[in-house]
Known about the structure:
mainly alpha
Amino acid sequence: xxxxxxxxxxxxxxxxxxxxxxxxxxxxxxxxxxxxxxxxxxxxxxxxxxxxxxxxxxxxxxxxxxxxxxxxxxxxxxxxxxxxxxxxxxxxxxxxxxxxxxxxxxxxxxxxxxxxxxxxxxxxxxxxxxxxxxxxxxxxxxxxxxxxxxxxxxxxxxxxxxxxxxxxxxxxxxxxxxxxxxxxxxxxxxxxxxxxxxxxxxxxxxxxxxxxxxxxxxxxxxxxxxxxxxxxxxxxxxxxxxxxxxxxxxx
Length: 251
């Protein structure tokens, strides 16, 4: 089996697991919809941002949140696979370990693409978000560019931990600060200086900006800077995650 076939085999296994776990698929879409229709519509009735209805303004941010939560919690399956010896069976195959890591990243991106497509369909049908084929493809590309880094980060953390409880605790300390300082729920231009610093070093802020720019033509940093930061973020954690897989001790 070639390395490409190995990557595709791991990817297909992840996709099959996702499609069989219908509760997981449903809950991963329902959560952002609650944010959009409860939180967004509630404040949206009285608030507009940059000339946009508040619910429309946060739509790209909630989409990016869904990518973040889905892709990073994807690392939880590495922890469970360790406990069930599934990962051991994959890693003892006559393939380099980067093959398994790459297949898992690709699986995570596929899941993110499915969920992002569902959310954009909901936005177009029920929220008045005007989505063209070009804006859909641009927003999806931005979401996946951010997803590559966040999936790699989740897998990196999963490779370092052996307890699901420890993973959940670490995720809480990583995901919520990333989300809350990304500008997903508010404009970042007039924040205090110390919060501006946190936003500017947060890779999710550039993911939110890239998706928001693609869907609403509302930019803070611009597409080139957004894409450059996300590529650097993805490359860094892909390398760190691959290295963690290569050094992982399965016992």
